[in-house]
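Quick one before lunch.
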Amino acid sequence: MDRETAFAALKTLYKDLECDIVTLGLDCAGCGRCCHFEEFDHILFTTRLEYEYLLSVEKKMTPDSPDRCPYQVNEKCLAREGRPLGCRLFFCQAEKKSEELSEQYHRKLRELHELHGIEWVYRPLLEWLERG
Ligand code: SF4
Ligand code: SF4
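Model of the iron/sulfur cluster complex:
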């Protein structure tokens, strides 16, 4: 199967997640603090398919610090469409509540890689952006 088909399936997964987030009443104030990884003691991991999808819809950014996601500018995310599952599933006010959802969607993401014959490589976004 080609990448476009896999990207379409990934977009559907993201849409389904949005619906589940609304149903569960999970909320994020959008302050952007968690995009400062060191300050927040948080590492954003992502997979090959997600990384390729991100680059298919957003410009490639080069990290300039291990602390900050390069897609954050003026405390706003410039990669809303392509941001990985890890960003979509993080709710600092409801980490326990979102834990089950996170497991469920990472399982779905792994299945999606298998279905499309894409190797499961799961590593920090900054590493993907530095090394490709
Ligand atoms: S999850 Fe929390 S820290 Fe991150 S943007 Fe939302 S409110 Fe801010
Ligand atoms: S992609 Fe967007 S939401 Fe995710 S860490 Fe970067 S700036 Fe934050």
